[in-house]
Specification:
This is ABC transporter ATP-binding protein. GO terms for molecular function: ATP binding; ATP hydrolysis activity. Belongs to the ABC transporter superfamily. Pfam families: ABC_tran. The structure is a single chain. By secondary structure, the protein is an alpha/beta fold. The chain has two domains: about 1-220, P-loop containing nucleotide triphosphate hydrolases (Rossmann fold); about 225-280, Alpha-Beta Plaits (2-Layer Sandwich), CATH 3.30.70. About 35% of the residues lie in helices and about 30% in strands. It has eleven helices and 15 strands. The protein has a six-stranded mixed β-sheet with strand order 7-8-9-4-10-11, with helices on both faces. Strands 1, 2, 3, 5 and 6 form a five-stranded antiparallel β-sheet that branches. A four-stranded antiparallel β-sheet has the order 13-14-12-15, with helices on one face. A hairpin with a 2-residue loop joins β13 and β14 (about 250-255). The chain binds adenosine-5'-triphosphate. Adenosine-5'-triphosphate binds next to β2 and α1.
Length: about 300
């Protein structure tokens, strides 16, 4: 869906995007994660043909960008850097203007199409209010509705939850998961680890313009080879497990073991009551910190 090869953008002496090889496949919910200023917006704008690369190649839906971007844009919904809208017009009217300006879709089905997009982003009940009375979150949703008008195969979203409250963030997440289930590939940039961890199936981590990591979230969050156990019989468990307990904190134990099911059977057989048991997994935060090294505490800062 999206492939870049050695994609680079310089602004004077600043290398905003540095030799990035990105691969987004059909059906992905791809999280492009990086701290503020790491080059996300620049890359997203290049993908859409809004900014020219200094060097490197981009393919969007199989076509080279910017050369043939006009052919693929009708299949791409985009939300980049704060949705632009006419403040004195209603949300519905804004969408109607956008819809009329775009290609595809007949006039006859316009009303339904716009209504459906507003419904999907939860704006149907306020659609007559002028956009200048909208909160930032409502504007963000309107931008998303605009991106949905033509039922895109690919959605490209730059920080889509900026300015939304936790409830709004959850609604957008659920909407994106639903759209993805219906076949839309989702590519979004974010500086929030938790957002990407909750929403995405595939993750690319960018740090100072370089892609330092790209993989399936499930692979990144592989089991650590330890099992977390909670038991009221912690002392007995420590005695039985003979040196394999790495840490004990009251009822909670960290045990070196590959297989929680086998460990559970062993403990129960030995008369140890098990309240909970699970494989320990690395968090995305740990993975990212390892990949980016010192200074990467900039991830996840609000702003
Ligand atoms: N038009 C421009 N002229 C000069 N430098 C620019 C321009 N656009 C971006 N930059 C620089 O390129 C780098 C990457 O910026 P970019 O906006 O792409 O990062 P970002 O990860 O999207 O950050 P944010 O989330 O804050 O927008 C920054 O150092 C920025 O100052």
């Amino acid at each position: 869906m999206i492939t870049t090869r050695a994609l680079t953008k310089r602004f004077g002496t600043t290398v905003a995007v540095d030799a990035v090889d990105l691969r987004v496949r059909e059906g992905d919910r791809y999280g492009f994660l990086g701290p503020n200023g790491s080059g996300k917006t620049t890359l997203v704008r290049m993908l859409l043909g809004l900014v020219y690369a200094t060097s490197g190649e981009i393919e969007l839906l199989g076509k080279p960008v910017p050369k043939r971007v006009a052919e693929v844009l009708p299949d791409v919904g985009a939300l980049v850097e704060g949705p632009g809208a006419y403040g004195h017009l209603s949300g519905r009217r804004n969408l109607a203007l956008l819809d009329a300006a775009g290609r595809g879709g007949s006039r006859r089905t316009r009303r339904g199409r716009i209504g459906e997009a507003l419904e999907r982003v939860g704006l149907a009940h306020v659609d007559q209010r002028p956009v200048k009375a909208y909160s930032l979150g409502m504007r963000q949703r309107l931008g998303l509705a605009a991106a949905l008008l033509r039922k895109p195969r690919l959605l490209v979203l730059d920080e889509p939850t900026n300015g939304l409250d936790p409830q709004g963030i959850r609604e957008i997440r659920e909407l994106l998961i639903e759209l993805n289930r219906d076949g839309t590939t989702v590519f979004l940039s974010s500086h929030l680890l938790a957002e990407v961890e909750h929403l995405c199936t595939r993750v690319g981590v960018v740090d100072r313009g370089r892609l330092v990591l790209e993989d399936e979230l499930a692979a990144l969050r592989a089991a650590t080879g330890r099992v977390l156990v909670a038991t009221p019989d912690a002392a007995d468990a420590v005695a039985i497990l003979d040196g394999r307990v790495e840490n004990r904190d009251g009822e909670r134990l960290v045990i070196r073991h590959e297989d929680p099911a086998a460990l559970n059977a062993l403990l129960v057989r030995s008369g140890v009551r098990v309240r909970s048991i699970d494989s320990e997994r690395r968090t995305l935060e740990q993975v990212v910190l390892e990949a980016t090294g010192p200074g990467s505490d900039r991830f996840g800062e609000p702003g």
